[in-house]
Amino acid sequence: MAHSKARAADGKVTYPPGVKEISDKISKEEMVRRLKMVVKTFMDMDQDSEEEKELYLNLALHLASDFFLKHPDKDVRLLVACCLADIFRIYAPEAPYTSPDKLKNIAWVKSYNICFELEDSNEIFTQLYRTLFQVINNGHNQKVHMHMVDLMSSIICEGDTVSQELLDTVLVNLVPAHKNLNKQAYDLAKALLKRTAQAIEPYITNFFNQVLMLGKTSVSDLSEHVFDLILELYNIDSHLLLSVLPQLEFKLKSNDNDERLQVVKLLAKMFGAKDSELAAQNKPLWQCYLGRFNDIHVPIRLECVKFASHCLMNHPDLAKDLTEYLRVRSHDPEEAIRHDVIVSIVTAAKKDLSLVNDALLNFVKERTLDKRWRVRKEAMMGLASIYRKYSLQGEGGREASKQISWIKDKLLHIYYQNSIDDRLLVERVFAQYMVPHNLETTERMKCLYYLYATLDTNAVKALNEMWKCQNLLRHHVKDLLDLVKKPKSEASNKAVFAKVMVITRNLPDPGKAQDFVKKLAQVLDDDERIRDQLETLVSPTCSCKQAEVCVRDITKKLGSPKQPSNPFLEMVKFLLERIAPVHIDTESISALIKQVNKSIDGTADDEEEGVPTEEAIRAGLELLKVLSFTHPVSFHSAETFESLLGCLKMDDEKVAEAALQIFKNTGSKMEESFPHIKSVLLPVLQAKAKRGPPRQAKYAIHCINAMFSNRDTHFAQIFEPLHKGLDPANLEQLITPLTTLGHLAQLAPEQFAAPLKSLVANFIVKDLLMNDRIPGKKTTKLWVPDDEVSPETLAKIQGIKLMVRWLLGVKNNQSKSGNSTLRMLTAILHSDGDLTEQGRMGKPDMSRLRLAAACALLKLAQEPCYHEIITLEQYQLCALVINDECYQVRQCFSQKLHRGLCRLRLPLEYMAVFALCAKDPVKERRAHARQCLVKNVNIRREYLKQHAAISDKLFSLLPEYVVPYTIHLLAHDPDYVKVQDIEQLKEIKEALWFVLEIIMAKNENNSHAFIRKMVENMKQTKDAQAASDPKTNEKLYTVCDVAMNIIMSKSTTYSLESPKDPVLPSRFFTKPDKNFSNTKNYLPPEMKAFFTPGKPKSANVLGAVNKPLSSAGKQLQSKASRMETNSNDDSSSNPGSPQRSKTSDDQESKPKRGRKKAAANTTTAAESEDQWDEDNRPEDEQNSPPKKGRRGRPPKSAAAGQDTPSKGRRGRKKAAPPPEDDEDEEEEEEERGDEEAEEDDDEDDRSAENMEVKPKGGSSESAESTPQKRRGRPPKSAQPAAKKPT
């Protein structure tokens, strides 16, 4: 081409053969004749004819001169235009005219417009357009581009029509494939369409109408690209599609899934584009598009959800429209859609928090409880990244931080879940997003300090639990290392295997993890270096920096470059991640103490962090207290202990309590390592024990017990003056001495044996409990806050606790003190709490004493030597407290009961007490009781699963064995008066189903047949409590028939063979009479209608209240002896199958060895967040708690005229609704081992804050306004009839 341009430069024009020179010197006719020959020559030429192209280049330039383009004769201009069209074709992609002026002339004179008069003008124009689109390139300047647009637009604007071929020639350049190949052609087409929008719009509309509405895809080769073209045209000029967009609305409703999907993808781009105003301009189309969020086709819903993030980021004003549709999709049955809802919302939130409203963030929050792990993980990680950006890093300012302040609590609440995957992810999120472990120590501790101070109660408990679980796992790994180092033997191999199984349960996918942990044990045995590194890692003295080095070295040693995917290494990383102390070491504790001191001195940033200084100090000490359990060695520094001494002298009681507990947990070596601290601390402890607040006195005694070798001397120095100084006349000064003496009695019962027995018999019982010195306030209230409780009542409560602690310390009943104490406690329950029955006590004081007596009975029942002497009447009377008229009494008693059962300390018959909750008038109390049952059943099943060798304890552990206790308890229900009364039997049925629904949720190993056989056996015995009383036995058999009908109506496998013959507790039932066959049906015929068939619901654990955290466990195995119960048959008949039953998927976490802390069951079931949204199912009306059910309602025949049940028995008062005040739930105890049990006692001291919770939906009336008769007291000869409730 360069050569041809050189030839052109010499100016010589070469004509085709037979054609002479064409100039202004010849006639018009001759010029036309010669031009026709030139036209034919150019028409016959191909693009490949390089020689001819060079030969005729000057001729092409000559024909583009003004002389020809502006010639007065139209025939000449027409022939020249035809030549030029072919010239563009031949020389493409090179431009034959390098001079802008030449092209300008062609455009300006509109040379091609004359072609309109030709029949084949369409072909000429199409060829011209095609040629121009081919020749345009980077070498052309803006002027050339502009002249081309002028030339092409004149043809469209001045022509009568635009053919489909010509339109295709323009539009094809907008198709993505062409657009990417030739950007200049795309720009040319774009400029042309903008210039000719008004003229070309009807033809574009016609094209889309043919393809979209009439389905004539043959009209154009571009039919398959219509949606790409619509998008490009909209981006060029929305006016081009004014008539096309309504067609899209029609297509959105097409029956063809693929077609709808294509339209949805198109509109997603159009609505979501940055500057798009389509949603505002075409609201019907926008609403129609939103409807596709509910499309039946999954890919369409998925596309809509993906579009949401772009829409939120580019059009925040549309967030309101999207919110409801995203809410529905966040509950979509498809996992991928729920996942992408989270991704869309989180993506927008990470760009700018103001783009998402609280409702959208709440959808992500809900999905943290999704059924699918992938969705839960995405939601948790999304929230974590949002929290780190706006709260930790401070982007977005205080407002943004405040808006997402709930995230930290929510993330930690997930630790309440059963899944180990969820727990591991919470631990990872905490270490990487909430308190990043890579921060410098001071900054890390400051972050942790203020985080802990701003967490809610349940989040704090979850975080505490997390540290305890990690600490427990560290101990397990340390135990494994010790076992590996021992000489090989069969016993050591078994011990290693047992420890491997324990560690496996703390890792994801226990099935696979078991093999990997075995392999790790082998590696530890073989590789000394890895063993040493791991020993360093689990050492109490390991620093955070050392931990990082150890983890890096171990993973490097176990990794292999040749094996990029190494499941074994991944499992080891999980394990190391859980046990590595990346946050806490001696340096960290020192930094944390300094942070607390800054708050005390007033130099901290408390106000800037939004935490009041007092709260910050209190939270800091609570944090240190928790860490003193898990990292006691890290506290061993003089600086730390001196700071804690300073905290002991502060006025804030909570701070001093926490400091005392820290000393107790960490001060075991203080005598030898820090004698100067000891000499200062001892007088402080003695002063606290004598004159401090009750809780501080308690912790002071335990500090002395844990820290000093000559504790007996120190105890004596405290005991003697307190014992001698007891003065019943000065009640306010009695509470602390009684608390201190009670704990001394528990810790050193032998040291003070004689004075203690005298103290209990003479002072506690005669002077304190049997006297009412100060008349109580006359009030209808059943409960008052702590600060309104009379000193005398508080002193009596401490007296009761002292008696119990003394017995728990002695642990034998040789002196029959246990019998005397039990009689005293039951007398308090018999008398409603008014032991003297002089009527001088106020109702709130009576409630407090009833609660104290019932909790004392539960405490004694946990000790085998006292459980044996508790009579059935005393057990039943204690059970009836769960139906007390006072809401707070019911609440606290059920929590104490649950805690004792969870620790496997209370015998199995006490689980039956929860059956009485079926008629509690408060829905949340019923829900709580149900979840307590679920938790206890699951704990026992898991325990049996993990301890297969304890079949001799099966009778006291197997949940199915609660059925005979439940039947016996209900047969002795004081509300069950008339044996055949339908209403009373319906209540019995509800109570039985309350327990059986959970026990029968899964029929593993044919447990339904086992339960049926157990009920059948009961009908062959007599009630051991009154074996000779026909009515008592008839009641028992009737309740058995109710149970049998429930089993038959709810199970299809009850008639199968029972795995083994069940045994019955000999204290409750006589031995079966083999000569007696009791086949009689004791139920009235009308009862048949009340047994509806249907499967039991699965026993899901629905809430934080209902699902306390599994804890780093107290050694449950040692507690099994507490629950041994004599049976009336040989133990070899224990069923072998049920104990091996698998637990359900939603089972609570496993009981673990070591210390176990009671969990947080503090929120109501209605407020619970632990429920999968997809799991909501209406309750079976027959099985749900009755709407009207109030305990103690007399039979209908008597109800109209009186409130007293038949036979002169005082009726049970209806349980009162909860009070209005809403305060914190019961404080979680923090004590180890047996001290953990006595910790429960002092929680009653603060029962106002513990018990004043108003469940959601509870009555707005106060408890005081509905005093009602309590249930279950034996008749008294001179007892007046009860008044009707006012």
UniProtKB/TrEMBL annotation:
InterPro entries from the UniProt entry: ARM-like, ARM-type_fold, AT_hook_DNA-bd_motif, Pds5
Annotated Low complexity bias: 1275-1286
Keyword Cell cycle: yes
Subcellular location: Nucleus
Domain of life: Eukaryota
GO cellular component assignments: chromatin; nucleus
Entry keywords, A to Z: Cell cycle, Cell division, Mitosis, Nucleus, Repeat
Ranges of compositional bias, category Acidic residues: 1167-1182, 1219-1246
Pfam families registered for this protein in UniProt: PDS5 (PF20168)
Protein name: PDS5 cohesin associated factor B
Gene: PDS5B
